[in-house]
Design brief:
The two termini are 21 Å apart. 30% of the residues are buried. The protein is globular. α2 crosses α3. It contains nine helices and eight strands. 50% of the residues lie in helices and 18% in strands. The protein has 265 residues and is α+β, with helices and mostly antiparallel strands. The protein has a six-stranded antiparallel β-sheet. Strands 1-2 form a two-stranded antiparallel sheet.
């Protein structure tokens, strides 16, 4: 691979360390970080020291563990506050959530996961432990399936190849579900997730595709399986979610332009 003179390896490694901290792994030791990143232990020590001195990592409950500090929280808050498409989408999502007494989530891809960037819930539903910032596996969620289904064939094949390599033998657990979801989307324009990710939750997912086709997000709508039956999801809710995606899609074009405005290297 040709060397990229613009690429700062030390910065990349520091960000890889920060990526290790998630809602499921809020506190980590340097040995765990070294294992998760594949970096040498001495390198991890120096990176963690630098991030700690800069306020991005702080001591955990135990002296030998770390957790993210105010610096990371500030960056996260800035991202959420200025995420134009999420702000634009919320009132539209709220209408659908309340109409069908459901939850509606909007997510974008992050490597092999989908990250929720906006969420609206009806007061009547059973609350799930999901919120803005939650990550869901791309191959094990209606959000991920909807995203994958909308990608161009070549791009989807490349992404799934990388996911297969990462998951190894575990890929077999998801392969059939992913294949069926993509086939269902091609025929009906949405994907089903009937108790696959959560035993008591049924959901559908649709992609949100920018007008130029260069950016894809995903929407999901669902709730308790006793209320969110297959027929109900496939009928009025699928129609409403498709319309919601159509309404949100133009905002992606504006956000894409804003991200690339006045950027010069």
């Amino acid at each position: 691979m040709k060397e990229d003179r613009m690429f700062v390896t030390a910065l990349h490694r520091g960000l890889e360390v920060l990526r290790c901290f998630t809602p499921d792994t809020p506190e980590l030791g340097t040995s765990e970080i070294a294992r998760m990143t594949g970096l040498p232990q001495p390198t991890v020590w120096r990176l963690c020291y630098t991030l700690s001195q800069s306020g991005y990592l702080i001591p955990g409950r135990n002296a030998d563990r770390l957790r993210v500090g105010p610096g990371v929280l500030t960056l996260g808050h800035a991202s959420i506050t200025h995420a134009g498409v999420a702000e634009f989408a919320y009132p539209l999502m709220k209408v659908v959530a309340e109409k069908f007494e459901a939850s509606v989530s909007l997510a974008e891809p992050d490597r092999h996961n989908m990250v929720i960037v906006q969420r609206a819930e009806s007061p009547a539903i059973l609350k799930l432990i999901l919120h803005v910032g939650s990550q869901l596996e791309m191959v094990n969620s209606s959000l991920g399936w909807a995203y994958l289904a909308a990608l161009p064939d070549e791009e989807r094949t490349s992404l799934l190849t990388a996911i297969k390599q990462q998951l190894g033998k575990e890929w077999k657990v998801h392969a059939s579900a992913v294949e069926q979801a993509i086939a269902h989307y091609n025929e009906h324009g949405f994907v089903f997730n009937l108790g696959h990710s959560h035993r008591d939750v049924n959901a559908i997912g649709v992609p949100v595709i920018s007008p130029d086709g260069r950016r894809v997000l995903a929407l999901t709508c669902g709730g308790n399986s006793s209320y969110m039956t297959k027929s109900r999801l496939a009928g009025p809710i699928a129609a409403a979610l498709k319309e919601l995606a159509r309404q949100i899609a133009p905002a992606l074009a504006g956000e894409h332009a804003a991200r690339h405005r006045n950027v010069a290297f």
